[in-house]
Specification:
Layout (H helix, E strand, L loop, with lengths): L12 E3 L4 H10 L6 E6 L4 H12 L3 E5 L6 H10 L3 E5 L7 H10 L4 E5 L4 H15 L4 E6 L4 H13 L2 E5 L4 H8 L7 E5 L7 H8 L4 E5 L4 H12 L7 E6 L4 H13 L3 E4 L8 H9 L3 E5 L7 H4 L4 H21 L6 E2 L1 H17 L10 H7 L4 E10 L5 H9 L2 H8 L5 E8 L4 E10 L1
Helix pairs in contact: 1-10, 2-5, 2-6, 2-10, 6-9, 6-10
């Protein structure tokens, strides 16, 4: 057990509603009121992606709704905003007439406008038309209409910098016709993602217009977001970083408008940890004062929110096992082998400790039952906590070896297997669990 007082953390924040709809409301409440509210489906991504730069250009809010109605929390937010116009995105197959009717009830003085094409591509083109009525559009992002991740960071940049964003599913005749009708004033096209996201046929079509075409082909969705921000977000620009899940779309949809209106960059992460150290490097490059996380801890965990790479977390676990077995070797005791069932036990309790920001001495109350479920003949547990920075195997091992009970568990000759769990609490503390077992 190691339980020093937690160190002070940077001023980070989390926008986390009870569901995706309430999360969109909480994001809306942090923005200045505008004259319009855009309503998009919270169960599919395309219309909200294309609407982000349009809503931002008008200083409008983007809220998520159900296909067949508006959740109560969203209705209350519409009433609070008292817009003069509510824009319903998509055809009635996407958002039903009931949505429009409930929007009218929530904002009785507002005009209700529907922008919906025959498909997601046409809807995005109609949204671009609306944007061009308000402001000249010289840069247009052309993003995949089949998947959401690459367009999230692009949408935030577009929302901030006055760019348009349209969707494509390929350079078919319909897309060619839509594009040809909207070339006036366009000087540059940008493509977020590799050819697996937006094909070479689309890039060739864009190039044939005589406009410049730039592709941002990151190795994955996370690196694509980094590439886009490296190009469009200036160094030392400050502000917050906005962080959204790259595996689940709803929170990131409202994040594009939120980040764009606040002039902040949006990045993506895997749920449990950072896919690499790239976003941490971006935090330093732009001089970020903190991070705003979109969604709950199951969407973006505290470890991911701390920008700790998955490799570093895995390395910490491996480091702990190596240190434990070096101590056992020095004591003339055979090494412990990693065990899947014990690892699940340890990781589960480390997660529980982190979720509750528990004391470093809080043992798993279900340890005996869990150990018996793993068919163990004997078992034991070490728990601990460190604060500040990243996971610190050396520090926690030093504390355990200085404690007789913890040291005895580490050196017990009858133990044959081990599971190790490491997780981070929202208080900035790192939690460690060693579950020992005899097979």
């Amino acid at each position: 057990m190691l339980s020093p007082a937690p160190a002070a953390e940077a001023a980070d924040s989390r926008i986390d509603g009870a569901d995706r709809f309430e999360t969109s409301v909480l994001a809306s409440r942090q923005l200045p009121a505008g004259d319009a509210v855009f309503l998009a489906s919270g169960v599919s991504f395309p219309d909200a992606l294309a609407a982000a730069p349009v809503a931002a250009a008008e200083g409008a809010h983007l809220l998520l709704v159900r296909p067949d109605g508006i959740p109560a929390s969203v209705q209350a937010e519409i009433s609070r905003l008292a817009p003069t116009e509510v824009v319903v995105l998509g055809s009635e197959a996407t958002l039903s007439s009931a949505v429009a009717a409930q929007a009218s009830q929530a904002a009785p003085r507002a005009d209700i406008t529907r922008i919906g094409g025959s498909d997601r591509v046409e809807t995005s083109m109609l949204l671009l038309d609306r944007m061009r009525q308000h402001t000249p559009v010289r840069d247009v992002w052309v993003a995949s209409g089949a998947s959401f991740p690459d367009a999230l960071a692009a949408g935030a940049v577009a929302a901030r910098d006055g760019h348009g964003l349209v969707l494509t599913t390929g350079a078919d005749a319909a897309f060619r016709q839509h594009l040809a009708a909207r070339m006036s004033g366009v000087e540059r096209f940008h493509i977020p993602g590799s050819v697996a996201s937006v094909g070479n046929d689309v890039q060739s079509l864009l190039s044939s217009t005589g406009r410049s075409v730039t592709r941002f082909p990151g190795a994955d969705r996370y690196e694509t977001a980094v590439q886009i921000n490296q190009r469009f977000t200036p160094a030392r620009s400050g502000g917050q970083l906005v962080l959204a899940s790259g595996t689940d779309f709803p929170d990131g949809l409202v994040g594009a408008v939120y980040a764009g209106l606040r002039g902040e960059p949006l990045y993506l992460t895997t749920p449990g940890c950072a896919s690499s150290g790239s976003v941490a490097a971006e935090r330093d490059r732009v001089g970020s004062r903190g991070i705003t996380v979109l969604g709950g801890v199951t969407t973006v965990s505290p470890v991911a929110a701390a920008l700790v790479p998955c490799g570093a977390l895995n390395a910490s676990t491996s480091d702990l096992l190596d240190r434990i077995n070096r101590e056992r070797a020095a004591a003339g005791v055979r090494p412990l082998a990693a065990d899947g069932c014990l690892t699940r036990m340890a990781a589960g309790w480390a997660s529980e400790m982190a979720a509750g920001n528990l004391a470093g001495s809080a043992h798993n109350p279900s340890l005996t039952a869990d150990a018996r479920a793993c068919s163990l003949r004997g078992w034991g547990e070490n728990v601990g906590r460190t604060s500040g920075g990243g996971p610190d195997a050396a520090r926690i091992m030093s504390a355990w070896m200085a404690s007789e009970g913890h040291r005895n568990n580490i050196l017990r000759a009858s133990f044959t297997h081990i599971g190790i769990g490491v997780d981070r609490g929202s208080n900035g503390s790192w939690y460690y669990v060693l579950d020992f077992g005899t097979r």
